[in-house]
Design goal:
single chain, about 70% helix
């Protein structure tokens, strides 16, 4: 049936029900559903996508990438950016891989707070990766949200694939920031310091066998910054057993 400039295909309800039942057990169901979603969102599938599906039907289609390309075209052609960005954010709640794409676009516009919100949504929806936490931390630093940036670096250090270098980087950030506060005559309440530092302390304790003497030094400073001087000294002394010439630990223990 032709309606204005569109062709409407009518399918008998029995055929539709039969097709739905067959689809539920079909091995390429995910690819077919992906094609259906693309048709609904963007119109007919491109020849390139069709070729990729024929060559590897089980891989499906990058829906988020297709959608974002469509949105970017609309942003270039339309003066109503907010409408399309609002639509993109709504769709990202179902397709979370869109959040980094939207965040990158906002950052390019200098809208750092909006970019930060996108990365937070991405993490909130289950993508708590090192890369995502790094983006949050960097944006927080640009927005001068120091405490939130430190918490984000700490969260990055707690990711399952975090390295000892990632832990040391976060510890350096925290210890240096607290030292700068002390230099300015400012000091965080102990409860705030504990909330900030304890997650890093837990990570170091779990992986201390992997740490170098330099890492022991950073760990010792974290303990000193939460007021646990006894443990801090024990950690520093244990680090010196690994490397008796380590000047960071010597300075920590006033041995240099």
């Amino acid at each position: 049936t032709h309606v204005e400039n569109e062709l409407i295909i009518q399918i008998p309800s029995v055929a539709r029900a039969y097709g739905a039942r067959k689809l539920s057990t079909f091995e390429f169901r995910s690819s077919i559903e992906a094609m259906s979603q693309i048709l609904q969102l963007f119109g007919p599938i491109s020849s390139g996508d069709a070729r990729r599906l024929r060559e590897s039907p089980s891989r499906g289609i990058d829906l988020e990438g297709r959608f974002w390309k469509s949105i970017k075209r609309c942003l270039q052609d339309s003066g109503d950016d907010e409408k399309h960005l609002s639509y993109a954010r709504e769709v990202a709640r179902t397709y979370p891989k869109l959040w980094p794409m939207i965040a990158e676009y906002f950052e390019g516009l200098g809208r750092l707070s909006d970019a930060l919100d996108c990365w937070k949504m991405y993490i909130e929806m289950g993508s708590s990766t090192k890369h995502a936490w790094k983006q949050v931390a960097v944006l927080c630093e640009k927005l001068e949200k120091d405490l939130e940036a430190l918490q984000s670096w700490t969260s990055r250090a707690r990711c399952v694939d975090a390295s000892i270098e990632d832990m040391d980087f976060a510890a350096n950030k925290v210890n240096s920031w607290l030292a700068r506060l002390k230099t300015k005559g400012e000091r965080l309440e102990r409860s705030v310091r504990l909330t900030l530092i304890q997650p890093l302390v837990d990570v170091y304790e779990a992986r201390l066998a992997e740490c170098s003497a330099d890492s022991y030094s950073k760990f010792a400073w974290l303990l000193r910054n939460i007021g646990d001087e006894g443990r801090a000294i024990k950690v520093a002394e244990a680090g010196l057993q690994k490397d008796p010439e380590n000047h960071h630990l010597q300075r920590f223990l006033n041995l240099d």
